[in-house]
Amino acid sequence: MGVFDKVKKLLNKNESKQSDADTVENIGQKSDIDKKNSDITSEKQTIKSGIEKTKSSFFGKIARTIAGKSKVDESDLDAIEEILITSDIGVDTTLKIIDKLEQRVAKDKYINVSELNNLLKEEISFLMQDYIQKEINTTTPYVIMVVGVNGVGKTTTIGKLANYFKNQNKKVVLGAADTFRAAAVDQLVLWSERVGVEIIKQDMGSDPASVAFDTIQSAKSNNADIVIIDTAGRLHNNVNLMRELSKIRNVMGKVIKDAPHDVMLVLDASTGQNAIEQAKQFTQATKVDSIALTKLDGTAKGGVVIGISDQFQIPVKYIGVGEGVDDLHKFNKKEFIDSLFS
Ligand SMILES: Nc1nc2c(ncn2[C@@H]2O[C@H](COP(=O)(O)OP(=O)(O)OP(=O)(O)O)[C@@H](O)[C@H]2O)c(=O)[nH]1
Ligand SMILES: [Mg+2]
Questions:
Q1: How far away, in angstroms, is 267 Cα from ligand 2 center?
Q2: How far apart are the C-alpha atoms of 118 and 101, rounded to whole Å?
Q3: Which of 31, 250, 328, 329 has the fewest Cβ atoms within 10 angstroms?
Q4: Alpha-carbon distance 238 to 14, whole Å?
Q5: Which of 40, 48, 44, 58 is closest to 121 using CA atoms?
Q6: Any ligand 1 atom below 6 A from CB of 155
Q7: Which is higher by pLDDT, 246 or 64?
Q8: What is the residue with the minimal CA distance to atom 14 of ligand 1?
Q9: Edge-to-edge strand list for the sheet holding 316-320
Q10: 147: pLDDT confidence band, cut at 50, 70 and 90?
Q11: Structure pTM?
């Protein structure tokens, strides 16, 4: 631990000046500046603790590699490459980062430890998409359809999202279009009661597209702001199930033009490279507008966020860092990288 702390200190020497103004741009939109700053501080802390395992694994390994060295040379790059790959950043994205490091080492012969840190940070930031979320303000309900394979955290994310929007004084309606299991409907009903939002459901086994249709119609006639539709956990290699997703989507478009506005793919970060594979399969089979990455709290595989941001032209909009109602955060790349390198 002593060595780790020393190296960490070295690595962070030039990183402590973080302007609040930069961060303020990207989070929340509350009017009271003081409240905003304290919200940001606590949000940052939660994200930091949410990615603690990833951070300590990533830095622990880098620290061990360069322990006792003042310079990083060509021979260290192989070890760094391996660390990036085992941090679940993914092979393609790792190679891009290593390529940049190699160019720099070839030019300067060797770089010092804090330069390495800065280079890694810059390069990761360059590869990740910058996506700043705007508030949702539409006259018709804004429809989010949540998709993803079994158990990734769709229903839980919907509960947290409903809470998030409700706290912004939005009128939220949930649609229980996962009709495959009775427990799935019950789980969403529980969330709707917990958060205090309306839910539209039918019996187990009914047509999911029909539930989606009812939900959107009800939301429209009651002037709701946000509709969130739950869907069954889908096997990405099952053509019929993918077809059914299209059917649900098409039915929605009949009630509200352009709906669903956001097809949100939920991925479980703890599955590492498997999450990248699921993103590949889903984006090939259906329209995907955004990604929510869950379970970052329990895994050291959070590097997968970097790979996903680099490899898909789809923004990671939310990250889940726990099972509680407040454990969902808007994803912000600067904040994520700062937390990883702080
Ligand atoms: N630690 C942690 N657990 C989570 C998070 N998100 C969801 N979970 C847990 O993951 C499990 C599965 O979550 P669900 O929301 O039921 O997943 P689902 O995708 O709806 O699953 P199916 O309906 O079976 O397809 C539950 O035990 C959740 O509490 C998270 O961000 N962190
Ligand atoms: Mg579910």
A1: 13
A2: 11
A3: 31
A4: 50
A5: 58
A6: yes
A7: 246
A8: 153
A9: 198-200, 172-176, 226-230, 142-147, 262-268, 290-294, 316-320, 328-330
A10: very high
A11: 0.83
